[in-house]
Design a protein that fits this description.
Distance between the termini of chain C: 35 Å
Chains: A mainly alpha (308), B alpha/beta (344), C mainly alpha (266)
CATH class of chain C: Mainly Alpha
Largest interface: A-C, 117 and 120 residues
Shape of chain C: globular
Largest sheet of chain B: 10 strands, mixed
Strand content of chain C: under 5%
Helix content of chain B: 25-40%
Shape of chain B: globular
Structural class of chain B: alpha/beta
Oligomer: heterotrimer
CATH architecture of chain C: Orthogonal Bundle
Number of strands of chain C: 0
Structural class of chain C: mainly alpha
Number of domains of chain C: 1
Largest sheet of chain C: none
Helix content of chain C: over 70%
Strand content of chain B: 15-25%
CATH topology of chain C: MetI-like fold
Amino acid sequence: MASAQESARIAERRDIRNRWLLSAPALIIILLAAIGPLFIMLAYSFMAKGDYGDVKFGQFSLDGWFSVFFQRDIFDDTISLADAHLTIFWRSVRLSLATTVVTLVLGFPTAYFIATRPQNKREIWLFLITIPFWTNLLIRTFAMQEVIRNEGILNTVLLTLGVIRSPIQILYTDTAIMFGMVYVYLPLMVLPLYAAMEKLDFRLVEAGYDLYAGRLQVLRRIIIPLVKPGIIAGSILVFIPSLGAYVTPRVLGGGKNLMLGNLIELQFGQGRNWPLGAAISITLMVVVMTALLIYVRSAARTGADNNG
Amino acid sequence: MKWKLAALTTALALATSAGAAWADGELNIYNWGNYTSPELIKKFEDTYKVKVTVTDYDSNDTALAKVRAGGHGYDIVVPSANYVQIWVKEGLIEEARPDQMENFKNVDERWVNVPWDPGRHYTVPWQWGLTGIFVDTSLYKGDINTSAIFLDPPEELAGKINVAPEMNDVLYATIRYLGGKWCTDDRALLKKVRDKLVEAKPKWIAMDYGTIEKFASRDYGAAYYWNGAAIRAREKNPDVRFGYPKEGFPYFMDSVALLKDAKNPENARLFMNFIMAPENAALISNFAKYANGIKGSEEFLADDMKGAPELNVPKEYQDAGEFLESCSPEVHDLYTKIWTEVQK
Amino acid sequence: MGKRFDIRAQPGFATIAMFTFFLLYLPIVTLVAYAFNAGDSIAVWEGVSLRWFVSAANNDIVQQAALRSLIIAAFAATISTTAATMAALATTRTRPYRGLTFKYAFINQPLMVPEIVTAVALLIVFSRIKVWTGYSGLGYLIAAHTAFCIPFAYLPIRARLEGMDLTLERAAADLYATPWMTFRRITLPILRPGIVAGFMLAFVISLDDVVITEFVKSGGQDTLPTYMLGQLRRIVTPEINAIATVFLMLSVAIVTAFFFLNRKKA
């Protein structure tokens, strides 16, 4: 009947309007204190760089964007792909991917463990995970240095156990950066995973076992698909910030090898090239945002299917 | 319970952000982190009944960006020598004429007519130092007064060298090592500079701050770093010696300047005069462990600093040291490109 | 059948979990140990002493900085978690509608940009506002922190919400419960672990922020991380370790208090 359809449509429109209202506070805050200011950065990326940092306001220039992708060889003026930038970009992507994988491998069982504790104990375990992060990032990174340097704990243990014969140089390598980032971003993986796992309906698991599935099968085909939103949320929360990380690479990598975050910071600092810094960041943001949008489109579709 | 907590925190927030509800005397200093002696501040506060706040920055560029943007609320800033002219050119600091202040007579003649503030119309010396060579002499017994230690490292030290991640200092040493002058745009020479650095870098273990502990733990065998840290490194590891690169080394000097839009210019002037007194300058040195530019402060210095070889440039190397000027933007660009290539 | 078959257990998971906890706390143990170092290095042990705690207790600046960090984090985490919860409710469990993708990207945007960029952009904007209004309190810092905390709170809450069983809410509606009642008594309690996770994440993220705070802060508004950033170039002493240890004790105390309060409720 026409009126039934109509009332359904009205209800739907009201629903959408309510949703907009609900999301308003978050959107406004972010607009004012995060995205709005970014438009300024966008504008800056199209300006000429100032002599001593900052920009020559209002002077249009494409130099910033040009320098992101191409470079003029300093000595013979030939134009080529910006090799330095590509190296740095690739290193950052590699390390961030490695970090995400390691945090997942460590974080999944940990989150699962916490989610399967008795009800009243769970939040305690959660706090236990986050307590180390109440100390400051810088100190934690210094403490991590202690653990991995040549005469540090890790090497001492390995030496005593006879696994290695002389200390492995871990500190100041890319591996050290990865260790550091895993350490920093672990709770970002564990907490979303926990949130998704905590509501896992174990009757489904039990059903799996009733059907003679082995433990691994149950894991692979029941548990993991059910907590997929948590896995994805955790991966996003680890991968993206780690791409722009800057303190950890600086302290643990010895500063010799730049990552994207350091490169960008250099432009706003000693490099005095704000337009380039702005352009690199916007490029990074666009790349990441595209990947994210593809995800949310597909998630929304499956979400709608599930909840129909 | 949640409401009580909210109320409490609101009260605390208001209390701390109100902050300056003190007497009408206030002073807001914007200085490098861990560079301002609390004793000095206390003495100043007690002498003049002024409430002092100190805010930290960790780089010249951050400070410049923040002040340029406006609305900062600081009265005093402490830029490095090679930035002072930039601050002047951008109209950010006041010509406070410290050379007409009462205590100016105490300033060491060496530091009065510096190339970046001749006659001291704008700034007062805070601390000075230089970047030089550290070597753990238990590992290497050769000549340490040369940049070859980090540019053409001897075998015993390869793989254990730290180089300060300071673009200007490193490029300066390399340019001079290869016979050039600072701010050169001789492409052929710069190509050699870049190649030399790229070639040397694999022999370095790090380009980091925080050198002292690493000498103590013997993670580092050599370094190109600031001399103040050398004293403390030597305290922890008696084998550490400081060398003055004879090919050329950069001085640094941080000086106190009055900001044009300062809200408390009178108190700032009092402060500038205050730190030119020998006993006060010594307070600064004892805290930050660098030399100050004031005559007569030696007797007030802490024992470990009196006569320290790291603070007193030997006669034969005095000409090798230079203050780095700010090069033209084009040259600066060139140098930044080289630096990025080295660091990538 | 002898041993009870635990359907929840997975091979090796408990081991890995314990190992992870161990790894997490190992550097912390080192850190706390060096807070008691008699020497003044954070890497070379020279015996036991309480001097750094004394030094930290006498260090007004560091205490104020720490307090400031806590206040900002408390405000930022609370506001951002609230906003994030509302936003999560608005953007999940629905067919894609116009603007949904846009909203999702918008909310997560702070995550995607390196902090230095947001920091400089905020510096420019807030400086203008500071000049116009003359206000330079903690408001700017709280606003900035709230903004970048939102996605951190949002994602765990959303993960929890997605795939949540709608039948309970439908049942409540069938029983003539108003939407608000349904929310308060059914949705919210189920959502609680996600909200708690989100809040804690936001709190910790705010506590740790250094780059944005460095650029947005006004005179005398150093937070603990910016204070330490300033120390990075100079000399790092175990005083920092002492402060971190105090923070640690504080958080343990809060957790214990929370635990006891919860028990009473049950």
